Amino acid sequence: MKLGDKLKAIRKANGMSLQKLSDTTAEMSESRISVSFLSDIENYRSNPSIDNLKIIAKALNTPVSYFVDDSENSLFGGAIEDTEFVPVVELLKDFKNWSIEDKRELLHYLEAKKVLRDNK
Predict the structure, then answer these.
(1) Most Cβ neighbours (<10 Å): which of 48, 88, 92, 99?
(2) Cα dist. 16→20, 42, 66, 96 in Å?
(3) How much is the pLDDT for 67?
């Protein structure tokens, strides 16, 4: 997946419009990345500088490596493009604030679900 597609996918997974992303970049840095420039990136008309890519990644709470990794399995194993995954991303946004017990419970659930899928 190319940078523009990745930007659009993660932006939509975060439930952000181009305007909201632009506003968030202004909150995160001293410079705003304009809606038109973000649109140009998503539509392959422009490429961001490394500094701008860092600002965009920070605004999306996403590692810069997601945008530059050529691997199809970079973030969430490609699941980010799946629109049914959007609610999961929303629920995980504050994962770092979860208690260790809640994190372990989620891990155990996901491991059990994988075992069930693998044994079908």
Answers:
(1) 48
(2) 6, 14, 18, 21
(3) 86
